[in-house]
Amino acid sequence: MALEDAKTQVDTAFTRKGLRGLSFENAFGGATSFLRRTYTKDLTGVDLAITGVPFDQAVTHRTGTRFGPRAIREASALQPYDPPYGWPTNPLEEMAVVDYGDLAFDYAKVADFPDTLTAHIRTILAAGAGTVTLGGDHYITFPILRAYAEKFGPLGVIHFDAHSDLWPDDDLSRIDHGTMLYKAVKTGLVDPKRSVQIGIRTTTEDYLGVHVIDAREVHEKGVAATVAKAKEIVGDQPTYVTFDIDCLDPSAAPGTGTPVWGGLHGWQAAACLRDLAGINMVGGDIVEVSPPYDTTGATAIAGAHVAYELICLYHWAKTRR
């Protein structure tokens, strides 16, 4: 990139003409929108909205994921110069992707949070855009799924995680990241027959019919078998992809509240996400990035890569719908 070209690319999050295109700016300066996308609340012509949900009041142990969206955005400044590796298309050139900013909510009125988040996502979907959400703890997926199920009906889910999030909990007023999927299945938002969990390595007594590919199976049978099984399970129906960063081994992603050893390596997660191309993905999220527990920033970098892959999966699906 020539110096003169660089001088014209000043904070493209605010100055970009149109909503498409790569960004060539210093990674160490400028606005920290995700992948230098335009910051906007105007959803006219938008295909996909990136939005942050800095909520961590549903965690069982260590807080800190409220700082996840900001850290993921900052880490993404390392990525927007080139088309995504391993994909035959370039979603930033071919699709209108914006940064819709963070959900605004009253941290002191926790009981109001679920409905506030559902309404936030509902607004984006009503405008004809999809969402990739930056969390936040994993509870946020439940209110998001409510908005998606309103539009698409019961969803198939591909759930990357160390934990099943299927702890029994029939009290919908409880806000707990360990019961997210239990409530989504029990309230009919998710079809367990078309849902699969990848990377699980903690004990759950009842998976409620959700298919499980645990971490050991991924390691022993490989990525190809994992992806083939996941694709067979979700079929071609609307599918939501949720990725808890603790699906990765703590050696790759220490910055999370409930790390568990024996997880996926970064290359395995990357290969799984890329090879899932072809599923009918309608939305997704990356959750549980907790920057206070990772001074290197590696976890946020991993989270930014996951989010970019989710954008690619969404674009791939959109071109075939």
Q: Can you tell me the overall shape? A: globular
Order of strands across the widest beta sheet?
1-3-2-4-9-8-5-6-7
Q: What is the number of domains?
A: 1
What are the low-pLDDT stretches, counting only 5+ consecutive residues below 50? Answer: 1-6
CATH homologous superfamily label:
Ureohydrolase domain
Radius of gyration: 18 Å
| Strand residue content | 5-15%
CATH second-level architecture = 3-Layer(aba) Sandwich
Largest sheet properties: 9 strands, parallel
Mean pLDDT, to the nearest integer, reads: 94
Q: How would you spell out the order of helices and strands?
A: HHEEHHEHEHEHEEHHEHEH
> Helical stretch count?
11
Helix content: 25-40%
What would a concise description of this structure say?
The protein has helices at 3-8, 12-15, 68-76, 91-94, 113-126, 141-152, 180-186, 215-221, 223-234, 266-275, 298-318, and strands at 38-39, 48-53, 97-102, 130-135, 156-160, 196-200, 211-214, 239-244, 281-287.
Molecular structure report:
Helices cover 33% and strands 15% of the residues. It is of the alpha/beta class and 321 residues long. The chain has a single domain, classed as Arginase, Chain A (3-Layer(aba) Sandwich). It has a 9-stranded parallel sheet, sandwiched between helices. Helix 7 links the parallel strand 5 and strand 6 (196-200). It is globular and about 55 Å long. The two termini are 36 Å apart. 53% of the residues are buried.
